[in-house]
Amino acid sequence: MLKVTVISPSPSTPIAIPRDEIHVWLVDILKMQRADILGECSAMLSKDENDRLKSFRSQSRKQQFLVSRAALRSVVSCYSPEESAKSLRFTTNAHGKPELVVNPLALQFNLSHSRDKVVIGVAKRRAIGVDVEFVDRNRNTKRIADHYFHPNEWSSELLQKDVEAGNDSALRFFTLWTLKEALIKAEGKGLAIALNTFWFSLDNTLQPTLVRAKHTLAERAWSFSRRVVDEDYCVAIAYENNQEHVPTTLIMKRFVHEFCLTGGVRFKKGR
């Protein structure tokens, strides 16, 4: 059941995140290209982040990194009012997944970007992974899928069913790719987990089903959601089921320069 709500808190009001909610923030880089906005973003970054920013030669890659890091700091600080966005300190686990150095609220978060979109997922006391990809229909997805996908996800029979249903192979590819990326990021191990050692069933359009191969993934109970946003971007969210076994609500939020919300889509999910 889909429930739409309008959310308009003050930018200065801390955001609470109950255990039964997952928050997913959508950031549009194109709406943050003014010089004054980029200057504020740069002032928010740490010295290490600004040093890394200077290493990029591509202007678009610079803006993507700058906005995504500033947005991450802004979003996380909304849940940790004791810390300013600039004062937050990040570290990474052994596989490169970002974490907070000081984390009394046990916040879990993850970030992904593609072209001019950034997605940030936030949860409390449970693992989360997100991925976003631009649906590039000019890309040679078949070659990549044949190498990385399980035969139960990518076959001539499945592709023919997609054609009959009016879907294209590019949408199947990027749906599966974002789901796989979201899961291995939630696991915290990245590409240390081979993408073809587990697979997804897409029979349920909005709530994919994971089929895990033996010994490839930890024995956790995962839930998934996927959406196409702004027409050309696939977004996938993987999150650990909460221990209370109560339904989880995913809330999608639009990030704007003032670091407040313009609105959100709220929909009930299973555990």
From TrEMBL:
Family to which this protein belongs: Belongs to the P-Pant transferase superfamily. Gsp/Sfp/HetI/AcpT family.
SUPFAM superfamilies the record matches: 4'-phosphopantetheinyl transferase
Coiled coil regions in record: none
Biological processes annotated in GO: lysine biosynthetic process via aminoadipic acid
Keyword Cytoplasm set for record: no
Family annotation (Pfam families): AASDHPPT_N, ACPS
Record-level Gene Ontology MF annotations: holo-[acyl-carrier-protein] synthase activity; magnesium ion binding
Keywords: Transferase
Protein name: 4'-phosphopantetheinyl transferase superfamily protein
A single GO cellular-component term on record: cytosol
Residue span, 4'-phosphopantetheinyl transferase N-terminal domain: 43-120
InterPro entries noted in UniProt: 4-PPantetheinyl_Trfase_dom, 4-PPantetheinyl_Trfase_dom_sf, AASDHPPT_N, P-Pant_transferase_sf
Record domain 4'-phosphopantetheinyl transferase: where: 127-238
Organism per entry: Alteromonas pelagimontana
